[in-house]
Structure formats: C-alpha cells, structure tokens
C-alpha cells in the first residue's frame, strides 16, 4: 500500500458506548475541510460498536476498522470470538493485528500470521503492529526482534500491498514516554529498509504508535518518514484527536 496520505488511526481499545459515537462529529466535520484532504482517518472501535460507527461515517471520508480477529477464517465453535469474515460483513475496511495487548494475551507470531492471512483473504487492509519491549531495547535487540516479527507474521505472504506497518515500542505504550526523535527516525528507516529489501516494496507505509498525544505529535510529525500515527487513549477525545 503506497500513497501520500497521512494516516491517523484511532484505537479505542475496550472503551466507548453508543453515546460516544456522537463524539466523532467534530472529526467528521474536520475531515471535510480542504486542508485535511490528505489525512486518512480510521476509527477502530470495540466490536459492539462497529456497525454503528460504519453507519455514522458511511457518507464521510472516515473509514472503520476492527481491533483484532480470531485466527480461524471460517465460522466455527469458538465461543466469544469474531473472525475476519464477520468483521468484513460488519462494514470494516481495516483491521489491527499484532498489537502488544493481544500479544500479551497469547498471540504468537504464528497466530498473528494466520490472522493476517485470514484478513487478507477477506480483502481487509491490515495495520500490522510491531515493536520491542524495554528489555529488548536495553539489550540492543530492537531490529532483531522487529525483523523477526515481520518475517514470522508475513510467512508465506508474498503480496503486502494491503499492509500498513505500525511501529509501537511496547515500553512506550501507555507510559507517556516516546522515543528520542533521532532514535525513532533511525528505527523507522531501518524498518522501511528491511521491508523494501525483503518484500520488494518501493514505499512501505510505517506509522508510529505509543503515547501519542496533541503535544508530542507536533514533534513526531517532524520525522518526515513516518506515514501516520496509531493513537490510543487520546483518540477517544474528539477535541484532542
């Protein structure tokens, strides 16, 4: 997936209710303005709100995505689970896969690979999360870990045109700490270089996520190689988002 859009992806995690849908009205209004023409806004609410978000944004420039799916593509006896087919049927166009929250809940690289394959088969566009822990960072294994996550997550997947990469250092998520700008710039460059060489993609899209807020996003946008942001807590407040 290559284009000149700047992506702003709102990951609502396990927050929100029917009333909170109205809070995105401000964002809808902003998205219609000319200066935001190249801003691609994607909301990823909880499963229970997908249908309502799709209806709310159907005639706007805003797209809707899911936060995860089951690794099994077809229907089956998986209590409490939702597969990519159901997410597609609900009207979603995007899906987050590999977030540290789901990795912490047991998602291995193999499971993530199955989820990506399943989602691609349903023509969903993937937001593939990658990132290192604080321990891995201190041991100078960041690139090693990220490259492994990418290779294992995309095993036997040749075409990655519908995949956006979201670099989220695990140690930054929810901590209020972001990487030093030079370090982040270098890491994004390394990720893009690896993807280009491994998958023969000219211009891979790499977003940044991890404690993004209205204040530090001004600094983060100085890194021209970043193609957008995956935003958690701050995205739930339409005035901040």
TrEMBL record:
GO molecular function: triose-phosphate isomerase activity
CDD domains: TIM
UniProt entry tagged with the keyword Ligase: no
Gene Ontology BP terms: gluconeogenesis; glyceraldehyde-3-phosphate biosynthetic process; glycerol catabolic process; glycolytic process
PROSITE patterns reported for this sequence: TIM_1, TIM_2
Keywords: Isomerase
One Gene Ontology cellular component annotation held by this UniProt entry: cytosol
A Pfam entry, by short name: TIM
Isomerase listed as a keyword: yes
Protein name, entry field: Triosephosphate isomerase
Record organism: marine metagenome
């Amino acid at each position: 997936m290559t284009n000149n859009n700047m992506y702003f992806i709102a990951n609502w995690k396990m927050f929100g209710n029917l009333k909170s849908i109205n809070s995105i009205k401000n964002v809808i209004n902003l998205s219609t303005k000319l200066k935001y023409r190249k801003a691609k806004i994607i909301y990823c609410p909880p499963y229970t709100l997908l249908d309502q978000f799709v209806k709310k944004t159907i005639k706007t420039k805003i797209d809707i995505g899911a936060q995860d799916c089951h690794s099994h593509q077809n229907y089956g006896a998986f209590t409490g689970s939702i597969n990519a087919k159901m997410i597609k049927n609900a009207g979603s166009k995007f899906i987050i896969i590999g977030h540290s929250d789901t990795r912490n809940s047991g998602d291995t690289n193999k499971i993530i690979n199955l989820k990506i394959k399943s989602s691609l088969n349903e023509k969903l566009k993937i937001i593939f999360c990658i990132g290192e822990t604080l321990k891995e960072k201190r041991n100078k294994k960041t690139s090693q870990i990220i490259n492994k996550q990418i290779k294992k997550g995309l095993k036997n997947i040749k075409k990655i045109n519908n995949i956006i990469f979201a670099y989220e250092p695990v140690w930054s998520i929810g901590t209020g700490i972001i990487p030093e700008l030079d370090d982040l710039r270098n890491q994004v460059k390394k990720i893009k270089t690896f993807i280009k060489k491994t998958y023969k993609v000219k211009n891979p899209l790499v977003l940044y996520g991890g404690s993004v807020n209205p204040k530090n996003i001004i600094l983060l946008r100085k890194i021209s190689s970043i193609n957008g942001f995956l935003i958690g807590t701050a995205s739930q407040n339409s005035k901040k988002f």
